[in-house]
Amino acid sequence: MASHTRRMLLELDDRWTDEKIEGSTSVRRFKDSIHDYLPFGPTICAIIDTPQFQRLRNIKQLGTSYYVWPGASHNRFEHCLGVAYLAQTLAIHLKESQPSLGITQRDVQCVTIAGLCHDLGHGPWSHVWDSMFIPSILPEKKWCHEDASRLMFDALLEENELYLAPEDAAFVKALIMGDMSMTMKPEKPYLFQIVANKKNGLDVDKFDYIARDSHAIDQKSNLSLTRLIYSSRVIDDEICYDIKDALQIFELCHTRMSLHKRIYTHKTAKAIEYMIVDALTKAEPVMHIARRLEDPKEYLYLTDYIQIEIEASKDPRLAEAQAILHRVRVRDLYSSVDFKVFPWHCKSKLKEVFTPESVVNGFKRLYQQSKQRDASAELKELFKDVGEDDATALGPEHVIIDLTAMHHGMQDSNPLDFVKFYSKHNPNKGIPANPDDVSVTLPSAFGEVKLRVYTRESRFFGLVQLGYREVLRNFQIPSPPRSRELTEPLEEDETGALDLPLELEPEPVDPLTPPAETPSASSSFGPLGSKRGRAGGPFGRAVSMGMGALGTRPRAPVGRSKSAMVDRAGAAVVRAVDNQFTTVAPTFKPRSPTRTTKGVKRGREEEGAGGEAEGSGVVRAETAATVVVSGGGGGTDGEKGREGELDLDLDHDFEGGGKDLEDRGRKRSKLGV
C-alpha cells in the first residue's frame, strides 16, 4: 500500500517534547516579529516544508490594505506560523495545568496542525477572493476559504507522502472548521474552542491577527496574549478565563472592531478591492480563474500573482482587465462618493433599498423634475450646470453600493455575554459576569453597518451623490426587533423629550471613544437575569449596559440626534439625513493633485508651443471647479470658490493677464500674502 512509503506524520515528533532528552534536538525555531522564537518539532516542520504551505508566502494578509499602509506587507505564511504557535502553547498549557483533562500529545499535535493549516485555502488578496469574487462569479456556490483549506490539506498529505490516520485527518479538519460533528469519533469539546471558536469568538486565530495587523500598521497595543493564554482554564468542557482579565478580553474585541473600521474597510482599500474584482471578472471568460478552486494542483498557483499574470499577458481579450489594473497602478481609483453608518438591524433593509439601479433612478427622477416648468428655483439652480450627456449616460454600471457589517466579534451582541469566568476563590466554577462585575462604561451598541457609495467614473461623482441622497431622503430606519422594543420602552426625561432606543439612532457609538455616562436610576440593574437583552447574557445588548441609554444629558426636543424624529403619539419615525461632511456640487469631478498638476504642465506646454491658451484655459477651469466644491461652508458659490482656492492655484504662473492677475491679487490679499 502507498501508506507504507509515507512518513507517519504524528510519529515524526517522537519524544522531542520529553524533558529527559538532553543535547541537540530536531526542534526548529522560527524568528517572529510578534511572538519572538516559535519552536516546532518535525511534524509541524514537515507540513511547513511543502509547496501547499509555502504558497501562503504569496498571499497578503491584509489584501488591498497594503496599498494604503505600506508596512502591512505581511503574508498568510507568518500568520499561520503564529496561530500554530499559539495553538500549541494553549494546548500544552491546558495539558500541563490540568492533567485531569487527559489531553494527549496527539491532541496537542492535531490542534497545532489545525492552527498551522487553517488558512491553506485563502485565495488571492485573502478575503477579496472568497467574499467578493467567488460570490459574484458563482452566486449559487456555497463556498468559503475553510472549504479550500480542507481540500488543500488533503492534497498536502497526498502529494508530500505524509500519512495521517483517517480519524486524525478528520479531527484536524473539524478543528479548522470549529465543527465537532465532522469527527469520526468523540473528541474533547473544548479543543474546538482553540483555533476556530464558534461559541464566543475567542480563539488563537484572532489573538494572532489582531496583534500582527496592529504591529504592521504601527499601532501600539496593550494586549497581553500570553496573559490570556495562561489565564485560560477548562471548566465543564468550556475554556474560561480569570475574571481579572475580563477587560483585557473586551480590549481584544474592541481592537478587532477598531481594525475593521479603520484598516480592513478603509475607503481606498475597498475601492481597490472592487477594481480587482472587476478586473478578475473581465478576465474570467479567458482565464477561467474561478474553476481553479476545484483542482488543488491549479489552486496551488493561484495567489496574488494572478494580477501580474493578467498584466503580462499579450492576449487582446484581456485588454479591459489590464486597463482596470493599470488604473490601480497609477492611482486612478474608483471614487468614494458618500457614506453613512446605520444600526445593525438595518442590514437587510439597506440591501433591499440601496442598489445601483435605485441610485440611478433617483438621480434621473430629480433631473427630469428640474426640467419641468413648475420646478422650484432651487432645483433648477442645482442642475443648471449638469450636462445632458452625463445625465443621460449615467447607468447602474457606474455605481457601486458597499454594505459592510462591523462588530466586536459576536455580531450585535456584547462578546462578554458569551464568555464564562472564574475567580481564584472558585477556580472550578465558570459563570457569566454581571455588568457591574466588569464595567458600566462599555459601548451601548456592539455592531453597525456602514453604507458607502462608489462610482467607477469620476465624471459622475456629483450625479451619483444626488441619486444616492434622493434614495436616502425617502429611507426610514426600520424599527428594531420586537424583543428590543419590549426591553427598551420609550421614556421621557424631565424636559419632556422622548428618549429613543439606542438601536434607532443612526449615528453609531465610535468604538474608539466609548461613552462613559452615569446610569440613571431607571437604568439600574436588578438581580441577575433582570433587564437582559435578547442576547440572553447578563450584559444583554444596549439596554443591559445602561450607560447613555437612559442618561440625563440635555437633548433636543425631538431626541438626541438630528437624524431621528419621534411622533409625539409614541411611534418612532426615524429618517436618515445626508452626511454633512461629504456634500459636493452635482458637477464635482475629483482629481488627484498629481494628475491635476500634470494637466497644468501640459497646458503650459501647449500654450508655449502654439499660441492661444485654449487647452490651458480648460485645465484652469477644471482645477478651479474642483477647489470650489471642496471649500464647503456657507455663502455664494463665488465666495466659496474664492475662499477655497489654496496654494495649488497660487503657485500657477498665470500668463493670460487681465482678470487672472486681478483674481490672483484678490486671493493673496484674502490669505494675507
Please describe what this structure looks like:
With 673 residues, the chain is of the alpha+beta class. Among the domains are: 266 residues, Orthogonal Bundle (Hypothetical protein af1432); 104 residues, no CATH class. The protein has a four-stranded mixed beta sheet with strand order 5-6-9-10. Strands 7-11-8 form a three-stranded antiparallel beta sheet, sandwiched between helices. Strand 14 and strand 15 form a beta hairpin. It is globular, with a radius of gyration of 29 Å. The relative contact order is 0.07. The C terminus is likely disordered.
SSE diagram, text form:
Elements: E1 7-8, E2 28-32, E3 36-40, H1 42-48, H2 51-54, H3 76-97, H4 105-117, H5 127-137, H6 145-159, E4 162-163, H7 166-177, H8 204-216, H9 225-231, E5 233-235, E6 238-242, H10 246-264, H11 267-287, H12 296-299, H13 306-312, H14 319-329, E7 335-343, H15 347-353, H16 356-370, H17 377-383, H18 388-393, E8 399-407, E9 421-423, E10 426-431, H19 435-438, E11 447-455, H20 461-473, H21 482-487, E12 491-492, E13 498-499, H22 542-545, E14 564-566, E15 572-574, H23 593-610, H24 614-630, H25 637-644, H26 647-650, H27 659-670
Parallel strand pairs: 1-4, 6-9
Antiparallel strand pairs: 2-3, 5-6, 7-11, 8-11, 9-10, 12-13, 14-15
Helix pairs in contact: 1-4, 3-4, 3-8, 4-7, 5-11, 6-7, 8-10, 11-14, 16-17, 16-20, 23-24, 24-25
